[in-house]
């Protein structure tokens, strides 16, 4: 844990970010989970250790982390921002029953051919969101 903490500090510094307790806590929290939490969910978690955290401070830490490319915003549902410390390209599976979100490795799917877009469009990025039922929600 000590080692992990100094690795996190190093990562923040290497991106030119001033290391604040809030940024550290938000980034460490995101690295420790894979459930793509919302700001509210991060706040709930952090308030266990950091009773002074407010949604606004968490939000500004997330903005700072996003600007340097350590965290990305994932929009899977209309109007809901979720955050992910896994910034390399990947897809998502979203359970329509319980809302669980999990990562799908980029290589699990064949590449989409951008050249199949109609002429005049220049595709740059894409990612797939698969909707369905997770193992806990499939009752047979
Ligand atoms: Zn489910
Ligand atoms: Zn993800």
From TrEMBL:
**Source species:** Halotia branconii CENA392
Q: What is this protein called?
A: Fur family transcriptional regulator
- List the InterPro entries: FUR, Fur_C, WH-like_DNA-bd_sf, WH_DNA-bd_sf
Which positions, given as ranges, span the membrane?
none
Among the Pfam families in the record, one is FUR
Cofactor descriptive note = Binds 1 zinc ion per subunit.
Domain of life, per lineage? Bacteria
Cofactor(s) needed: Zn(2+)
Q: Which UniProt keywords apply?
A: DNA-binding, Metal-binding, Repressor, Transcription, Transcription regulation, Zinc
Q: Please provide the Gene Ontology terms (biological process) for this protein.
A: negative regulation of DNA-templated transcription; regulation of secondary metabolite biosynthetic process
UniProt record similarity statement: Belongs to the Fur family.
Task: Detail which positions bind Zn(2+).
Answer: 95, 98, 134, 137
Q: Name one GO molecular function term.
A: DNA-binding transcription factor activity
Q: Which SUPFAM superfamilies match?
A: Winged helix' DNA-binding domain (SSF46785)
């Amino acid at each position: 844990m000590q080692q992990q903490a100094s690795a996190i500090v190093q990562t923040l510094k290497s991106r030119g970010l001033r290391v604040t307790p809030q940024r550290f806590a938000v980034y460490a929290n995101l690295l420790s989970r894979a459930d793509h939490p919302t700001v509210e969910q991060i706040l709930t978690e952090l308030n266990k250790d950091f009773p002074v955290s407010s949604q606004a401070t968490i939000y500004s830490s997330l903005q700072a982390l996003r600007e340097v490319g350590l965290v990305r915003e994932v929009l899977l549902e209309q109007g809901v921002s979720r955050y992910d410390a896994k910034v390399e390209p990947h897809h998502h599976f979203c359970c329509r029953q319980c809302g669980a979100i999990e990562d799908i490795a980029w290589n699990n799917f064949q590449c989409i051919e951008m050249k199949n877009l109609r002429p005049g469009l220049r595709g740059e990025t894409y990612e797939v969101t698969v909707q369905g039922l997770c193992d806990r929600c499939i009752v047979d």
